[in-house]
Design brief:
Blueprint: E1 14-15, E2 18-23, H1 27-30, E3 31-41, H2 47-52, E4 56-57, E5 62-66, E6 69-73, E7 76-77, E8 94-97, H3 100-111, E9 115-124, E10 130-139, H4 142-165
């Protein structure tokens, strides 16, 4: 039996065969993420090509529940450079695709004080579908962020000591 091994590409990080194209780096620093949900995203025309070429940015984006549907707000997808005049609006509101019971769970969670929906990353599945991983989390206070940074620095120093003694 012949098995084919896939080499990791240098174009970006890959997890479980999925190709991550945009990551919200500050989301885990600003929010205590409790739950992560994979959602589909409704895209138009040249948006998919733009995302594949690395033209997506999740900084300052968030998800909102309106009228029983979930929308991705403030996500910047750059206009596709090889397109004609019918290009897309870079900051348009995009619908996230979820099952009804998943939306109901999110509505219940967001109704609690302090919870928000934060997009963590946009990636392509091995079958070529664009997905958004959406985190449900609470905003961290300033002292919580400092504590997280302090703990990370201590762990990094411990790892350096362990590797240095070998």
């Amino acid at each position: 039996m012949h098995t084919k091994q896939h080499a990791k590409s240098k174009s970006g990080p890959q997890d479980e065969g999925r190709k991550v194209v945009a990551r919200n780096k500050v989301a885990r620093a600003r929010y205590e993420i409790e739950n992560v949900i994979e959602t589909g995203i409704e895209l138009r025309g040249t948006e998919v090509k733009s995302i594949r070429s690395g033209g997506a940015n999740l900084r300052d984006s968030y998800a909102d529940v309106r009228n029983g549907e979930v929308f991705l707000e403030n996500c910047h997808i750059a206009p596709y450079s090889f397109s004609n005049r019918f290009n897309h609006d870079p900051l348009r509101t995009r619908k996230l695709l979820l099952h009804r019971r998943e939306i109901n769970k999110l509505i219940g969670k967001v109704a609690e004080k302090g919870y928000t929906l934060v997009p963590l990353e946009i990636y392509f599945t091995p079958r070529g579908k664009a997905k958004v991983s959406l985190g449900v989390g609470k905003g961290k206070k300033l002292f919580d962020r400092r504590e997280t940074i302090r703990r990370r620095d201590i762990n990094r120093d411990m790892q350096r000591e362990i590797h240095g003694r070998r």
